[in-house]
Write a structure and sequence with these properties.
The complex is a heterodimer. By secondary structure, chain A is mainly α. Chain A has 13 helices and no strands. Classes of the chains: A mainly alpha, B mainly alpha. Chains A and B meet through α2, α3, α5, α7 and α8 of A and α1, α2, α4, α5 and α6 of B.
Chain lengths: 271, 270
C-alpha cells in the first residue's frame, strides 16, 4: 500500500453524516406534507385542468388588453398596468426619501453604536410587518384605491431601504470627511461634498433594486383593493376565466421583465 | 457652461453634470405617474384608521384579554404549523429543483448557448410571476389547502434560487475545476469536487434567506386559499378584527424570530 492509498483510507468518513442529513431532510419534507389534508382526488383531473387553462391562454382578450371595443380605456389591462407601475414608482420614491433619515439613524458611522441599535430595531419592525396586512389596515383609512397601494409600498420599503442605506453609509470612506474637516467645512458642506458623492451611486442602485421588488408587490396588493392590476386579477381568478387571467398575466410578465431589464441595466451603469 | 480662468492664464470649462438629466427624468416620471393615482381629500379617513387599529388590537365585544391571547395559543397553532410546513417544504423542494437549472444556466460550466439560453428563459419566466399568482393557479389545479401553498412556494423558490445560484456559480474560482479536468475528471466529478465546495455555503445561506422570504409571503398565499395563517386572516377580516389582530401579532413574532435566526446563521456561515 503506498502513501496515497493510506491517506485515502484515513479520509474522514463523511457519508454517515451525509446520509443522516438527507434522511432527516426527507422525513421533514414528508412530515410537512402529511399534516395537511391534501385532496389527492383533485390530481385525477389535472389533465383536464391543464387543457382548460391552456385553452384560456390561447384565447387572449385583446380588446380587454388594450381597453378598446366594449371596454373603456381605463378598464383595459394597459391602463391598469401603467397604474401598477405608477404605484410602484411613486411608492418606491416615497420609501427612498423616507428611508434616508432612517439610514442615517441606523448608521454607526453617523450616530454612534447605541443610537444605531435603536435605528436598526425600528427598521426590523418595519421590515417584518407583512406588507399585505399593512395594506389591509391602510385600506380602511385611505379607501380602496391606488393611494393605499402607494402608501403601503412607501412605508414598507423603508424597512429594507433604510437598512441597506445604513450599510452603504457605514462602508463609506471616511478620509474625505477628515479632509473637509481640515479645510473647515460645516456639517452641510460635509454631507454635500463628503457623504453624498460617495453614497449616491449605492443609494440609487439599492432603490432601483427595490423598485424591481415593488413592481411585483404592487400587482399583488391590488387583490385587497390597493389599486392596479390586482383587483381584475382576483376577479378573473375567482371565476377561473383563464382567457382574462392569461391576458393580465401576460401584462404582468412583460411589465416585470421590462422593469427588471431596465433596472439591472441602470444598476450596471451605476456600479 | 461656466468658464474659469486659472492663474496661469488657461481657461477650463466646468463639465455639464449628468445628475440633472437623472433628476429631470425622475421628476418627469413622478409627474406623469402621479396623474394615474386618483387623489381626493375625501378618501382619507384617519378616524377610521384609528378605529381599525383599536379593533385589531383589543378584544371584540364581550371577549376578554385572556380570550384574545389564548386564541393565539389554541386556534392559531394549527394554521401556524401549516404556514411553517409549507414554507419549509416549498423552500427545500424548490431549492433542490433549482440546482440543475442553475448549473445549466452558468456560462462557465455549460459553454453552449443552446443550453444556457433556454435554461435562463425558464428561470426568468418563473421569477417574474408573483408567488401569489402561482398560488392562485395551484389552487385551480389541486384545490384550496396547504398543497397549493407548497406548489406555489416551490415554484417561486425555484425561480429565485436558480437565479441567485447561477450568479454564484459564474463567479467561482475556476482553477480547481481546471486542475481536476487536467487530471481527467469527468464533468460530474469536477462539479462535485471543484464547484460544490465553493458554492455550498452560499447555497445554504440563500436557502435560509429564501425560507425567511417565504414565511413572510405565506401570509398572502393563505389569502388566496393556500392554507395557513393567511386563511385565518381572510376568514375573519369582515367580522372578527380581534382574531385578525391576534394573527398579526403571532405572524409578526414568528417572522421576527425566523429573521433573527436566519441572520445569525447566515453571519456564521460567511
Amino acid at each position: 500500500m503506498n502513501r496515497a492509498e493510506e491517506a485515502l483510507k484515513r479520509k474522514p468518513k463523511r457519508w454517515v453524516m451525509n446520509l443522516i442529513f438527507f434522511v432527516a431532510m426527507i422525513v421533514a419534507i414528508v412530515f410537512s406534507f402529511s399534516g395537511s389534508k391534501i385532496n389527492w382526488s383533485r390530481f385525477r383531473s389535472i389533465g383536464h385542468s391543464l387543457r382548460v387553462m391552456l385553452a384560456g391562454f390561447a384565447d387572449l382578450q385583446w380588446d380587454f388588453f388594450f381597453g378598446t371595443g366594449i371596454f373603456q380605456f381605463k378598464e383595459g389591462v394597459v391602463y391598469l398596468t401603467l397604474v401598477t407601475l405608477a404605484i410602484a414608482f411613486i411608492g418606491t420614491f416615497i420609501g427612498a426619501v423616507l428611508a434616508i433619515p432612517f439610514g442615517f439613524l441606523a448608521s454607526q458611522n453617523i450616530v454612534g453604536k447605541h443610537v444605531a441599535r435603536i435605528g436598526e430595531a425600528i427598521l426590523v419592525i418595519i421590515r417584518v410587518f407583512p406588507e399585505i396586512i399593512l395594506a389591509l389596515i391602510l385600506v380602511k383609512g385611505f379607501g380602496m384605491n391606488a393611494l393605499t397601494g402607494v402608501l403601503t409600498i412607501g412605508l414598507h420599503s423603508i424597512g429594507m431601504l433604510g437598512k441597506l442605506f445604513a450599510e452603504a453609509i457605514d462602508n463609506m470612506d471616511k478620509s474625505p470627511l477628515e479632509a473637509l474637516d481640515a479645510v473647515g467645512a460645516n456639517i452641510w458642506q460635509k454631507i454635500r461634498y463628503g457623504v453624498i458623492p460617495q453614497v449616491a451611486a449605492d443609494i440609487s442602485s439599492i432603490t432601483l433594486y427595490r423598485l424591481d421588488i415593488n413592481v411585483r408587490s404592487a400587482t399583488v396588493l391590488g387583490i385587497i383593493g390597493a389599486g392596479g392590476l390586482g383587483a381584475s386579477l382576483i376577479l378573473a381568478a375567482e371565476s377561473w376565466s383563464w382567457n382574462i387571467l392569461g391576458t393580465i398575466l401576460l401584462a404582468i410578465v412583460v411589465m416585470v421583465l421590462v422593469v427588471d431589464v431596465i433596472s439591472s441595466y441602470l444598476r450596471g451603469k451605476l456600479v | 457652461m461656466t468658464k474659469y480662468t486659472l492663474t496661469n492664464g488657461k481657461t477650463v470649462t466646468k463639465p455639464f453634470n449628468k445628475i440633472w438629466i437623472i433628476v429631470g427624468s425622475v421628476v418627469l416620471l413622478l409627474f406623469l405617474f402621479s396623474r394615474l393615482i386618483p387623489y381626493d381629500a375625501s378618501f382619507i379617513k384617519l378616524g377610521e384608521l384609528r378605529i381599525i387599529i383599536v379593533k385589531l388590537f383589543t378584544p371584540k365585544g364581550n371577549r376578554t384579554w385572556n380570550d384574545y391571547f389564548s386564541y393565539i395559543f389554541t386556534s392559531l397553532i394549527e394554521p401556524l404549523k401549516e404556514t411553517l410546513n409549507m414554507s419549509f417544504a416549498g423552500t427545500l423542494l424548490g431549492s433542490l429543483m433549482a440546482v440543475p437549472l442553475a448549473v445549466l444556466s452558468a456560462k462557465n460550466i455549460v459553454k453552449l448557448p443552446i443550453i444556457y439560453i433556454p435554461a435562463r428563459t425558464i428561470m426568468n419566466l418563473f421569477r417574474t410571476i408573483p408567488a401569489m399568482i402561482l398560488a392562485l393557479i395551484a389552487v385551480f389545479f389541486v384545490g384550496t389547502g396547504i398543497l397549493s401553498g407548497i406548489i406555489a412556494i416551490t415554484l417561486f423558490t425555484f425561480g429565485i434560487m436558480s437565479k441567485m445560484l447561477y450568479e454564484v456559480i459564474e463567479t467561482i474560482d475556476m482553477s480547481p475545476v481546471e486542475a481536476l479536468e487536467s487530471t481527467g475528471a469527468k464533468k460530474v466529478e469536477s462539479l462535485r469536487y471543484a464547484v460544490m465546495p465553493q458554492v455550498l455555503p452560499v447555497f445554504i445561506s440563500y436557502l435560509i434567506y429564501i425560507f425567511e422570504i417565504n414565511v413572510r409571503s405565506s401570509t398572502i398565499l393563505g389569502y388566496v386559499g393556500a392554507g395557513g395563517i393567511g386563511t385565518v386572516i381572510k376568514d375573519n377580516i369582515l367580522y372578527n378584527y380581534d382574531r385578525v389582530g391576534a394573527s398579526i401579532i403571532l405572524m409578526f413574532v414568528v417572522i421576527l424570530v425566523v429573521q433573527l435566526i436566519s441572520s445569525l446563521v447566515r453571519s456564521k456561515l460567511q
